[in-house]
Structures are given as C-alpha cells and as structure tokens.
C-alpha cells in the first residue's frame, strides 16, 4: 500500500513546471499580440496621416464695403437741341480749352444743313460721358461742411450714358471732366468693432484691395473715422483714377485689417512641446518635430516662420508621434 505523502511530493515539481510553462507561453503570446497590435496600429496610423508641402504665402483678415466715390468734377452741358458729336473719347485726358464734344444743330445756312458748336473743357482732367446726377454735390470740398453720407442715401442714382450721334436737348448735361491731379475720396461704412477703432484713425493709413483686375493692395490715407451707432464711417483718399473710379459712383473695396506672411499651415498641424509651437516634418519617411514661430493667425490658418522651402509636414499630427514612419 502506497503512502500518500510520498506521491504528493513527487507530483508537486511536475505541477510547478506545468504552471511555469503555461505562464511562459502566455507571456510569449501576450508579447506577440502586443507586437502585432503595435504593428497594425502604426500601419493604420501611417495610412491615416496626411502630409503637405509648406508654401510661403500670406493670410489676411478682410472686410468688404461699398465705397462711395467723391470726385472733383466739372459737368458740361449742351446749349441747343441737336446731335452729339464726341471729340474726346471716354477716359481721355484733355487740357484746359480743349474741345470735348460738338453739338450739331439744324441750320439751313450751315454746311450739310447743320452748324457745329464746340464745347470746350474749362479745366484739365479726364473725360467721361457717364453721369449720375451727383456731380455737383458729392465733391471733396463738401466733406467737412455737408453730410455726404446723408446726401447719397437720400438720392436716387441716375445711370446716364451718352453716345456719339445721340440727340440731346438744350441745357442737358452730357459729360464731365474729372480732376486727376487731386485725390478723390472714398466714403465707406464698416462694423463698429474694436479691431477697426484701434487701427483706423485720421491721418493713419489702411491697406485696401481696390478690387481691380491685376491690382495689388495699396495703402490709403484716412481722412476721417467716426463711430455712428453700430457703424464706423470712414473717409479715405484715393489717388487711382482707373476707369471704374471715373465712371461709377459706388465700387466694392476690401479693407485688410490684418495680413501675415509666412509658411501657411492649418492650426491643427501645430504640436506644442514645453509650450513652444512646432510641426512634424517628414524626413526620409520619418517624422521629426520642428520648432516654428507663429507670425499670425486668421481663422484656422496660421502663418509660421522657421521652415525651409518645400518642407513636407504632417497636417493631422494626432495620428502619429515623433520618429514614426509615414507612407
């Protein structure tokens, strides 16, 4: 008959070996799962990562406004009923005394049954045959003595255009000569916000996109800036005499309140380390953190410096860490 004490002692080492073997296999299994999980995770993250080449450009905060153009202009009228014969073309600059147009009036004693009356310019300037009825009211010297905003608001703009050989009546105004040696004025209304009150002051300058094809933003001098209710009324000096500013009374301008140059990246691309901004750049398919300086921010775009041209960077760094591969 076997004694239970001896068999029990013999079975214990075998049982311990089985337990150790099971633990070892479990550890190896967990390790393999961990390796596979990390490999799959890194592979998926690498596929989710988006990259882009940083381009040097600018971002800006802007506000559009309808500018009322105030010009120093002289109107020309016809003395008699007849037909208009244009001499100086639209936009042409004439000197003092130059014939702008003629009026051919019926006259049995004249050649071909008409007599031509010359209408000369009393001043030098640019000729236009587009009129709106405000030529004598909206003039620069009235800016300090009349409410030009109120005059414009209370006036229905005419849209008159006169062409060659058009029948005209006595006393009818058919042309204007715009003084292009003195600046015209631009009246505008902006939202009455602190950002504008702080930057737009009389005697200062503001950056404005003139809204002309191929033109670059220019600085215009601020003549007046006056809060009125929820609006900020501004008066600017304009020295550009493009045809759009000669012919029209209202033109859309774009005021640039902030403008920042640099490499433009989305704000989400920034990665902070020790409270210092940077981005993940890609070098030999690996990410590395590159510190940058923030020059300015507009909405969700940031202008930064500290990068080399044609630098590839990570747009969505939340999916990756420094040193990880990028496809």
Keywords:
conserved putative lor/sdh protein from methanococcus maripaludis s2 fold, alpha+beta, 4 helices, six-stranded antiparallel barrel, 327 residues
Task: Give a written overview of the molecule.
This protein has four helices and 23 strands. The protein is α+β, with helices and mostly antiparallel strands. Among the domains are: 1-48; 50-57 and 261-319, conserved putative lor/sdh protein from methanococcus maripaludis s2 fold (Beta Barrel). It has a six-stranded antiparallel β-barrel with strand order 2-13-16-15-14-17. Strands 3-12-8-5 form a four-stranded antiparallel beta sheet, with no helix packed on it. A four-stranded antiparallel beta sheet has the order 7-6-4-11, with no helix packed on it. It is elongated and about 140 Å long.
Give a short synopsis of this structure.
InterPro entries: BSH_RND-rel (IPR058709). This protein has 327 residues and is of the alpha+beta class.
CATH architecture of one domain, by name, is: Beta Barrel
Strand order of the largest sheet: 2-13-16-15-14-17
State the end-to-end distance.
73 Å
Mean pLDDT across every amino acid position: 88
Task: Compile the SSE list and pairings.
Layout: H1 4-48, E1 51-53, E2 56-70, E3 73-77, E4 82-86, E5 93-94, E6 99-106, E7 114-120, E8 125-128, E9 130-131, H2 148-153, E10 160-161, E11 167-168, E12 173-178, E13 184-191, H3 194-199, E14 205-209, E15 218-228, E16 231-238, H4 243-247, E17 250-266, E18 271-273, E19 276-283, E20 286-291, E21 293-298, E22 301-305, E23 312-314
Antiparallel strand pairs: 1-23, 2-13, 2-17, 3-12, 4-6, 4-11, 5-8, 6-7, 8-12, 9-10, 13-16, 14-15, 14-17, 15-16, 17-22, 18-19, 19-20, 21-22
């Amino acid at each position: 008959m076997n004694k239970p004490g001896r068999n029990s002692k013999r079975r214990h080492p075998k049982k311990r070996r089985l337990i150790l073997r099971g633990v070892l296999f479990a550890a190896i299994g967990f390790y393999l799962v961990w390796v596979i999980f990390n490999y799959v995770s890194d592979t998926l993250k690498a596929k989710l990562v988006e990259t882009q080449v940083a381009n040097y450009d600018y971002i800006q905060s802007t506000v559009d406004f309808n500018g009322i153009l105030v010009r120093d202009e002289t109107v020309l009228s016809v003395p008699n009923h007849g037909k208009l014969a244009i001499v100086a073309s639209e936009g042409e600059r004439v000197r003092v005394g130059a014939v702008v147009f003629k009026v051919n009036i019926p006259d049995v004693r004249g050649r071909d049954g008409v007599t031509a009356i010359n209408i000369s310019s009393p001043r030098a300037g640019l000729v236009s045959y587009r009129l709106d009825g405000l030529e004598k009211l909206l003039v620069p010297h009235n800016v300090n003595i009349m409410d030009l905003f109120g005059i414009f608001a209370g006036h229905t703009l005419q849209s008159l255009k006169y062409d060659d050989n058009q029948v005209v009546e006595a006393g009818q105004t058919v042309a204007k000569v715009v003084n292009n040696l003195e600046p015209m004025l631009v009246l505008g209304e902006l939202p009455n916000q602190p950002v504008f009150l702080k930057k737009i002051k009389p005697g200062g300058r503001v950056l404005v996109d003139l809204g002309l094809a191929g033109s670059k933003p220019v600085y215009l001098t601020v003549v007046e800036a006056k809060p009125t209710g929820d609006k900020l009324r501004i008066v600017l000096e304009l020295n550009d005499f493009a045809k759009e500013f000669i012919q029209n009374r209202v033109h859309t301008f774009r005021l640039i309140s902030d403008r920042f140059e640099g490499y433009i990246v989305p704000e989400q691309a920034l990665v902070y380390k020790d409270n210092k901004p940077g981005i993940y750049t890609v070098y030999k398919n690996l990410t590395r953190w590159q510190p940058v300086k923030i020059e300015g921010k507009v909405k969700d775009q940031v202008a930064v410096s500290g990068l080399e041209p044609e630098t590839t960077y990570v747009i969505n760094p939340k999916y990756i860490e420094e040193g990880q591969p990028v496809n």
